[in-house]
Amino acid sequence: MRRQLRPTDVKRLNRAWRRQTANRLSLILESVTGPFNVGSIFRTAAAFGADQIWLAGNATPPTNPKAGKTALGTERLITWHEAMPVADAVKAARDDGYTVLAIELTAGAVPLHQADLGRDVCLVVGSEDHGCSPALLDAVDGVCYIPQVGRVGSVNVAVAAAIALAEARRQEWQNLAESPESP
Question: Looking at the predicted structure, is the pLDDT value of residue 72 above 90?
């Protein structure tokens, strides 16, 4: 009979995955204004072990009560930076050793699963209405998109961030499993 894991077992399982995780992961939120989206992104980023989140443009901070309600305190687990111009956020991430990749539909963007995410990477998502700005797209190291086969043009920004974070970790763990030194 299948049962949910007890809290102690969940902690052990998470600890085992943490031991297999070396790459640093971070985010830039450009003008993401919906507090529930911001809270959800912070909670997902904490679950995938993101180190930092830079807010850019007019992004809503996680201190917003509605964002906090969704984040459930996870904003305390991630270093986050007050909103700044997007070029400054990209520069800060790059100066900290990250490759900065936007998640956006543009000419020349590569499918997310084909992008090299198995390294220290800072993923960028843009506003709910307009996506990433032209200034941001000019500043980043590359652009990826989430392949979709449905009849809608995009997914919610918090969902896009979750998909991208999960894919970055999946690539890292797959590369570890395929390396000759792996157990």
Answer: no
